[in-house]
Amino acid sequence: MINASLPPVIAIDGPSASGKGTLAGIVAQTLGWHQLDSGMLYRLSALAVMRKGILPTHEAEIAEVARNLDVRFVGQQVLLDNDDVSDALRQEEVGALASQIATYPLLRQALFERQRAFRKAPGLVADGRDMGTVIFPDAKLKVFLIADVDERAQRRYKQLIEKGISANLSALLEDLKARDERDMHRSHAPLVPAQDAKIIDSSTLSIEESVAKVLAYWAEVNA
Ligand SMILES: Nc1ncnc2c1ncn2[C@@H]1O[C@H](COP(=O)(O)OP(=O)(O)O)[C@@H](O)[C@H]1O
Ligand SMILES: Nc1ccn([C@H]2C[C@H](O)[C@@H](COP(=O)(O)OP(=O)(O)O)O2)c(=O)n1
Q1: Domain tally for the chain?
Q2: What angle, 0 to 180 degrees and rounded to 10, lies between the N-to-C axes of helices 59-67 and 38-52?
Q3: Ligand 1 atom nearest residue 205's Cα
Q4: Per-residue confidence (pLDDT) for residue 214, from 0 to 100
Q5: Domain range spanning residue 131?
Q6: Which partner from 9, 11, 74, 188 sits 20 to 30 angstroms from 198, CA to CA?
Q7: For the chain, which ranges sit under pLDDT 70?
C-alpha cells in the first residue's frame, strides 16, 4: 500500500556487488533525492563490534552497539566515534561480519528506525537487502538488481584495486558465494525480491544502461 503523505521511496535491493550503491547514487543525484546505503549501517555495526572486541555470537551486545552508533557523514567521509572509517568499511572482512551479524533479529530491529529516518522530502533512494520488503514496503518503485556471481566478483575486484585496497579474485568469489547463501537463506528479512519488484539483470549492462532502466521504470510508475 502506498502512503501518499510520506515522501516517495525508490528501493534497490540485491546481492553484494550487483551495483546497487552505484545505481542508487546516480538515481538519487538525477532526481535530487536523498540516499540511504543501508549496508553501510550493517558494516558500521560490524566495524564497531570488531573494534570493541565483542564476540560475533553476542547478539544482545551487538544490537546495543548498533543502537548507540556514533556516526557522522561529512561530505564523502564517514566518521565512527570521530574516526574516519570510509576505507575500513569497504574491507571484505567487515562485509563478511556484517552479513553474519545481519542474521540477528535484535540487530535488525535496532537499525529499523535509523533507516526509516532517512525518508525525507523530496524523496529517498534506498539500497540494501530488505528495503522493498521490510523497511519501505510502500516504496513507489522496487528494483531487484542481480548479476552473475563471476561478474560481481570481477566488479568488486576492480573496485577494490582502484581504491588501492589489495584483493584476491578467487577469495572474493568464494566470499560472495558465502554471502549470497547467508543473505538469501536467513530466517529474518532474507534477500528476496518483493512481490512487486522489477528485476534488472545488470550482468551485461553498462552502468548507464542500468540507470536508464531504473529511470524508465520510475517514469512508468508516474505515467
Ligand atoms: N551495470 C552496472 N551497474 C552498476 N554497477 C556496475 C555495473 N557495471 C559495473 N559496475 C560496478 O560494479 C561495482 C560494484 O558496485 P556497487 O554499487 O558497489 O555494488 P553493491 O552496492 O551492490 O555492492 C562498482 O565499481 C560499479 O562501478
Ligand atoms: N538492508 C541490508 C543491507 C545490508 N545487509 C547486510 C548483508 C550484507 O552482506 C552486509 C553488507 O551489506 P552491503 O550492502 O554493504 O554489502 P555489499 O556492498 O553489497 O557487498 O550487510 C542486510 O542484511 N540488510
Answers
A1: 1
A2: 120
A3: 1
A4: 98
A5: 9-218
A6: 188
A7: 1-4
Please say whether the beta carbons of 9 and 124 come within 8 A: yes
- Enter the pTM of the model: 0.95
- Is residue 78 lining ligand 2, measured as CB closer than 6 Å? no
CB 6, CB 133: distance < 8 Å: no
The pLDDT of residue 76: 85
Does residue 2 fall inside a structural domain? no
Sign of the dihedral through C-alpha 134, 147, 181, 62: negative
Evaluate: CB of 21 within 6 angstroms of ligand 1.
Answer: yes
Write out the H or E segment, with its range, that includes residue 158. Answer: helix 149-162
* Residue 3 lies inside a defined structural domain of this protein: no
From the CB of residue 130, how many other CB atoms can be counted at a distance below 10 Å? 23
Atom number in ligand 2 closest to CA 42: 21
The pLDDT of residue 12: 98
CATH number at residue 201: 3.40.50.300
Q: Is 161 in the pocket of ligand 1 (CB under 6 A)?
A: no
Q: Is ipTM beyond 0.90?
A: yes
Q: Identify the residue whose C-alpha is closest to ligand 2 atom 5.
A: 39
Q: Residues 193, 15: contact at Cβ < 8 Å?
A: no
Predicted pLDDT at 4: 64
What cell numbers appear for 13 in the block? 535491493
Strands 198-201 and 34-37: unpaired
**DSSP string for 164-187:** T----HHHHHHHHHHHHHHHHH-S
Tell me the three cell numbers of residue 89.
Answer: 568499511
Query: Which residues lie across from 77 on neighbouring strands?
Result: 74
**CA–CA distance, 54 with 152 (Å, rounded to integer):** 31
